[in-house]
Design goal:
The protein has 126 residues and is mainly alpha-helical. The protein has 2 domains: 28-67, no CATH class; 68-126. The protein contains 2 helices and 3 strands, in the order αβββα. It has helices at 29-36, 70-125; strands at residues 43-47, 50-55, 58-61. Strand 1 and strand 2 (50-55) form a beta hairpin. The chain is elongated. It starts with 28 loop residues before the first helix and ends with a helix. InterPro entries: Chibby_fam.
Length: 126
């Protein structure tokens, strides 16, 4: 007998028989096919009071209630396009102004150098 026996290891319990909690065995074949079969129909989702379904790769609104109308969608798309064009124009204008500023800054530095050289040259002659 070992000095320090394995006193703290519990005895192994026998495995329990698991009771099935599923009621699938009580459902008849027709209901199983309807619930779990391959013919599931369109996918329907209800979000925030609006019901939408998935048909042919697109989500389509099922009720007119609180959804956005097609006219509003078209108007929003036009507004978005207009704002994107305006944004691109403003970016172009800003780039042109930055180029003009860089050019003027460069010319200003060159003129300052010329003035400094002229002042320095005049001081040397004295």
């Amino acid at each position: 007998m070992p000095l320090f026996g394995n006193k703290f290891s519990p005895k192994k319990t026998s495995p329990r028989r698991s009771a099935s909690l599923s009621n699938l065995s009580t459902i008849d074949e027709a209901q199983k096919a309807a619930e779990f079969g391959l013919d599931y129909g369109p996918i329907r989702v209800k979000l925030g009071g609006t019901e939408i379904s998935y048909h042919d790769g697109q989500w389509i609104s099922e009720g007119g209630g609180s959804g956005v109308s097609q006219r509003e969608v078209v108007k929003l798309k036009k507004d978005k396009q207009k704002l994107e064009e305006e944004n691109n124009l403003l970016k172009l204008k800003m780039q042109i102004l930055l180029d003009m500023l860089a050019e003027q800054t460069c010319e200003s530095h060159l003129l300052e150098k010329e003035v400094q050289e002229m002042r320095g040259g005049r001081g040397r002659k004295k």
